[in-house]
Write a structure and sequence with these properties.
Blueprint lengths: L8 H4 L5 H5 L2 H6 L7 E4 L3 E5 L9 E5 L11 H22 L3 E5 L15 E6 L16 H13 L2
This protein binds adenosine monophosphate and zinc ion.
The site of adenosine monophosphate has 10 residues, from loops.
Amino acid sequence: MIDPPAFPEKTLSPNTNAAAVAACIFCRIVAGEIPSSKVFEDDHVIAFMDIAAVTDGHFLVIPRKHVETLYDLDAILAGHLLAVTTRLAKAAKKALRCDGMNLYQANEAAGGQEVPHLHLHVIPRYKGDSFGIRYNPTKPPREKLDEKAAKIRGAL
Ligand code: AMP
Ligand code: ZN
């Protein structure tokens, strides 16, 4: 078992956005209204198999609470979500004997998010599998890297 850190009342408080919850497919999985193949559940998170698995054993880890994106996630729930995900990834590695593993998490439409309930994808990888993320690396000069770092730091 993973002992979650003390959860403040704010984290445990019920969802207030009833319309978003009612329309949310993952909230319906949490409520048991639609079927899922569960890997794990505790008071704060659940994990279940992805119905459109991109590799063998692909599953999702989500907070029970309707949190839309990473920007809405508080640090304590974030810590617990990652602790559970780490434990499940280790179990998946052992059980599936995969060659590698990716964590993937999408925010907003431009980030590729389709279901507006925060989720971490755990994607077991196998040599020669078809999963991939498309990108074109660039070579920004150091001054540009420093400038972006300072800009983000300034927003903390
Ligand atoms: P994302 O594009 O990051 O929002 O990913 C959403 C994921 O949810 C996709 O990989 C879908 O296959 C998955 N998904 C959608 N509906 C269900 C469902 N009912 N049960 C399990 N996985 C689902
Ligand atoms: Zn939801």
